[in-house]
Amino acid sequence: MPKIVDHAARRDEIAQVACRVVANYGFEQATVARIARAAGYTTGMVAHYYESKQEIILAALRLMLLRIEERLTRERERDEANLLEALSEALAIDSQRFTECAFWMAFWGQVSADKKLKRLNAWVHREYMRLFERCFSEYWSEWSAWPQATRDQVLRSVVTFMNGLTASAVTSPRDWPADMQVEQLRLQLDLLRQWAGKRATKSR
Predict the structure, then answer these.
(1) What pLDDT is attached to residue 4?
(2) pLDDT value of residue 75
(3) Is the CB of residue 162 less than 8 Å from the CB of residue 99?
């Protein structure tokens, strides 16, 4: 009796391996052949599931975003401290998250020279903004009362800060242990909350 193959699981497996290969070798060196070897498949097998390297990268991006969404939106107690816990899920605080962040950095390094990757990056940015806004609306009780312009500023600031923080953690991991990353994020959130609160008070 022939073995039943879970094709969706195999596609996800290849995408997951691609994430690790890109993180370890960089975008250019992460060839389809190298991804196939790391996954334990032939290039022909990988080609059966993906027509190009860019398709594999897109699948890896989608898979990573799905995992980040699952971690960010995991059921937690609705208290202020848990916003920090939720957003910390996107930092390079363990081996899996470090690999994800290293993948993002390798991907970003190619964006400026590739129109298709620019579109992908714009989509990724929108998804991050959507996820982070959901977190803020759940954990900060005053969020919905702030003007839209203030909420937009907070979101942009947080995304920009976390991009820089994860880049620092990937390039200088010894200088950025997990507890330091989380503490810096805590400080950023506290400052932004104070700024937004004062701005909302003045606008009344």
Answers:
(1) 65
(2) 66
(3) no
Whether the CB-CB separation of 90 and 68 falls below 8 Å is answered with yes
CATH 1.10.357.10 domain range(s) in the chain: 1-72, 76-204
Taking the chain (204 residues) in runs of 10, the rounded mean pLDDT of each run is 70 90 88 93 91 87 82 67 86 91 85 80 85 91 93 94 94 96 96 91 69
Phi, psi angles (nearest 5°) of residue 52: -155, 165
The amino acid present at 83, given as its one-letter code, is L
Question: What confidence score (pLDDT) does residue 77 get?
Answer: 61
DSSP symbol at 41: -
Question: Which one-letter amino acid corresponds to residue 200?
Answer: A
What's the CATH fold of domain 76-204? Tetracycline Repressor; domain 2 (1.10.357)
pLDDT for 26 equals 86
Instruction: Give the distance from CA 165 to its chain's centroid.
Output: 12
Q: Which of 111, 124, 23, 108 is nearest to 66 (CA)?
A: 124
1-72 has which fold?
A: Tetracycline Repressor; domain 2 (1.10.357)
Q: Within 10 Å of residue 111's Cβ, how many Cβ atoms?
A: 17
Cα(122)–Cα(111) distance, integer angstroms: 10
| Rounded-to-integer distance, Cα 75 and Cα 70, Å | 9
Residue 47: which residues within 8 A CB-CB, separation 6 or more? Answer: 32
